[in-house]
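Renewal narrative, Specific Aim 1. Our central claim is that a sequence can be written position by position from structural information alone. The example that follows is taken directly from our test logs and has not been curated for this report. It begins with the structure tokens describing the chain, in the order in which they were read.
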């Protein structure tokens, strides 16, 4: 077995966005929860994120809607989460 195969999707997401493994698991699960019924596998979410070359960490819902728009996972999305006022640092 290729040692590279042993790296889990959340571990790669953690490296890409420089976040903890726990945050990466949360991120992947919330991308899945952005869809109403049919939820994409973590591996597919990871492959999609790797191809996007995000310069910042998008919200899970943004990734889900981009997956739907691009036809990667063409299933119904749930409603977007309420905007959190505190989330973005406007002073960067």
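The sequence written for that structure reads:
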């Amino acid at each position: 077995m290729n040692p590279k195969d042993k790296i889990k999707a959340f571990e790669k997401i953690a490296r890409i966005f420089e976040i903890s493994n726990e945050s990466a698991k949360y991120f992947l699960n919330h991308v899945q929860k952005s869809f109403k019924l049919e939820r994409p596998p973590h591996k597919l979410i990871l492959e999609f994120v790797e191809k996007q070359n995000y310069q910042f960490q998008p919200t899970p819902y943004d990734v889900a809607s981009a997956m739907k728009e691009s036809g990667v996972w063409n299933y119904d999305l749930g409603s977007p989460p309420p905007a959190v006022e505190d989330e973005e640092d406007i002073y960067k």
